[in-house]
Amino acid sequence: MRALLFSTALLATAGLSTVTTHAGDWREPPSEFIASVMAVKNVSAPTISPDGKSAVYILGETDVEADDYGTNIWWVDTVTGEQRQLTHSSLSTESQLAWHPTENAITFLTDREDENEEYQLWLLPLDGGEARPLASMDAGISDYHVSPDGTHIAVVVTDPAPHETDDEEPPIETPPPVVIDRFAFKNDSEGYLTSTQSIHLIDAASGESSVLATVGFQPEAPAFSPDGTTLAYVAREGDEPSRLENWDLYLYDLDSDKSRNLAASALADCAIGGHDRPLWRPDGKAIACLTADYTVDNLYAQPELKLYDLASGEAQILTEDLDLNIGDLSWRDDGNALLFTVEEDRSQWLAQMDTANGDIERLLTGKLTVYGYGNAGGATVARLGFGDLPFELYKVEGGIATAITDHNIELLEAHPWQPFEEFSATSSDGTDISGLLVKPGNYRKGRRYPAVLYIHGGPTSQFGHEPRSTAQVFADAGYVVIMMNPRGSTGRGIEFSKGIFAAWGSVDVPDVLAGVDWAVEQGIADKDELFVAGWSYGGMLTNYVVASDNRFKAAVSGAAISNLWGGFGTDQYIHSYLSELGTPWENPENYNRISYPFLKADRIQTPTLFMVGQEDYNVPALSSEQMYQALKVLRVPTGLVVYPGESHGISTPSYQIDRFQRHLDWFEQHRD
Fold first, then answer.
1. Coil, strand, or helix at residue 14?
2. How far apart are the C-alpha atoms of 373 and 46, rounded to whole Å?
3. Which of 87, 229, 334, 554 lies 20 to 30 Å from 12, alpha-carbon distance?
4. Above 80 in pLDDT, residue 407?
5. Is the dihedral of CA 142, 147, 151, 154 positive or negative?
6. Element (H or E) spanning 542, and its range?
7. Number of domains in the chain
8. pLDDT over 90, % of the chain
9. Residue 319 carries which DSSP code?
10. CA-based diameter of the chain, in Å?
């Protein structure tokens, strides 16, 4: 309790010290524009009906007064665009939509009405009637798949801890010790990894369940075959399965209750990020999934499309010649083609591959980002984002996207977002670096503006034509926003991405600075009013930048690490440390080289504000605390804001507002 109170006090009083120009209550009302950003409705998870005539989706909304976020399910006619809300669940969360295979209904996971706020499986009839529970487990359900005939449901369940198994024992009020024996034992938002999980088979009529005798560690992503006789799933195997980053595809025969490993390999098969479901071809004779080799390329590994032929047992990589990230697989109804997204420089487009000849067709391209889509009944509905437009649903036909939802149109009319402009800059070694520029709404050519170098996380991600609320907040406050995709970014092939392999804070520093130089040379940015900010690896690169260049008036570094010696064993990246940097005792030079913002903190003269979630297991708070302490010792203006109860991504609305405002206040405080 003492630690929690300390962090809360730190957050609440920071505005009264030298940390910001914030005065009074940290929860004072936000500006109109920040309030409008918080009011944006998030459209996601388009799930199209089997006949292609309608789709359901999730609409997320922030309740600032309740300081929470909730989601509801909506329906849209894919021809007319008619929309209606299906659920009204206030601040509960609903996710993982699917059309029921035999009823005119949808299934979904929700924490509504569960006293422990665990997710359970519900069914919502579309012909009328209220949603009702379909399956529930004491520990909740994290994933599910309904059999083709609707009679059974495979669910993924967290197994109870030993002290929770005896119902006759009185509840233990004092938490038991956390006992750890795993190689990889931490994960953000989950904390210490001590639990196991299993796949249960539930009889849809009776509700009775049984644990499947699956093989492997932490089985997940169950998928029934089209005839319902076999369940595909993904798991790890070995004496110490969490030591390796490989997953294998298994087939479980429901008649014999036996599993077999379809094709053991050292790759991460059907588990990119640990959540991709094996995709049965409609005829049941093949399975498609994504695969990657993390043992060689670490987090820079690019997913590839793998197709298993079940008759021959052979597996084939279909995208060997496509040097780009792909994701979000689905079969076309006839089973002759696979759809997926492709991430390219500053965009993400929708593709279709003919599996017979490997030809790839671009179904939708442009200055846009496809984040999710549904494909059935000859129709395709995509979730599209643009730089100046939040995500909405669009029907895709003949390479043209037509909007069928418009949840944010009135909001944007009152508080318009600024468009993204593409540009390129040349880094110090001659490498061409892509960038995006956002100008204030009142921008006038010939006038120089204060500028923010806004750096993305990852590092294996990119800035593309998609909604970026932080960039819009900066632009609304009068800043030009410079967003670069330095080496380490995705969208330009694996060699570009691996350009900073074991060399963080090397070439990516001049890469992002090239964008600043370009904006100054073009007469857009004021060289005397430059600022820099980023979160996660964006915060790390912010630290590298201010340890390399003192031109910036102020910096904000969020959820970052600069002392990699302190990260080993304290964050969730043990596999990455070993595959990219090696061990500290065998390769101390690697850790020293990329820890220079901390080990050579006396180079830093830029006033820097550090922010972090108190319960961040991705990049723990100690990393921000160390940098804050170093600058305090050096008497460089600095501040530290710790958000209680938050993990790597700040999710509480009041803290999100506070983070926006503290960026602006810190910059304003250090302007001339």
1. helix
2. 6
3. 554
4. yes
5. negative
6. helix 537-546
7. 1
8. 77
9. -
10. 77
Residue 518 belongs to a domain with what CATH number?
Answer: 3.40.50.1820
> What six digits make up the tokens of 273?
């990020």
**Could you tell me how many residues make up the chain?**
672
CB 342 within 8 A of CB 509: no
Written as one letter, the residue type at 64 is V
In the prediction, which pLDDT does 1 show? 25
Segments forming the whole domain that contains residue 563? 418-669
H/E element, 598: helix 596-599
Domain membership flag for residue 649 = yes
Domain contains 537: yes
449 is written with which tokens? 């503006």
Helix H or strand E encompassing 588: helix 588-593
> Token pair for residue 633?
């010792």
Cross-strand pairs, 278: none
Give dist(CA 493, CA 588) in Å, integer.
30
- Asked whether the CA dihedral 486, 490, 494, 498 is positive or negative, the reply is positive
Answer whether residue 13 shows pLDDT above 60: no
CA nearest neighbour of 383 among 55, 107, 17: 55
Hey, what amino acid is at 43? Answer: V
Between 496 and 6, the higher pLDDT residue: 496
Q: Please state, in angstroms and rounded to a whole number, the distance separating the CA atoms of residues 658 and 31.
A: 11
Pairing between strand 554-558 and 608-613?
parallel
Contacting residues for 191 by C-beta, under 8 A, at least 6 apart: 615, 617
Instruction: Report yes or no on whether pTM surpasses 0.85.
Output: yes
The DSSP line for 96-145 is EEEE-SSSSEEEEEE-TT-TT---EEEEEESSS---EEEE--TT--SEEE
**Any domain includes 623:** yes
Residue 312, phi then psi, degrees to nearest 5? -90, -20
Task: Summarize pLDDT for 240-265 with one digit per residue, the tens.
Answer: 888 877 888 899 999 999 998 887 66
State the SS3 of 393-428. EEEEECCEEEECCCCCHHHHHHCCCCCEEEEEEECC
With vertex at residue 663, the alpha carbon angle to CA 659 and CA 666, rounded to the nearest 5 degrees, is 130
DSSP helix/strand/coil, 275: coil
Q: Which of 253, 255, 250 is nearest to 216 (CA)?
A: 250
Cα–Cα dist 646/187, whole Å:
13
What tokens does 66 get?
A: 């309740």
**Start-to-end C-alpha separation, the chain:** 42
Token pair of 28 as six digits: 């004072």
Q: And the tokens for 553?
A: 């008036």
Q: Rounded CA gap, 381 and 377, in Å?
A: 11
- The strand pairing partners of 43, in sequence order, are 59
Measured CA to CA, the distance from residue 474 to residue 436 in angstroms comes to 14
Cα–Cα nearest to 41, from 541, 567, 522, 411: 411
What's the rounded Cα separation, in Å, for the pair 646 and 189? 8
**pLDDT value for 3:** 32
Q: Which two tokens stand for residue 15?
A: 């505005």
Evaluate whether 55 touches 76 at the Cβ level (below 8 Å): yes
Q: What tens digit of pLDDT does each residue of 549-585 get?
A: 999 999 999 999 999 999 999 999 999 999 999 999 9
Domain presence at residue 337:
no
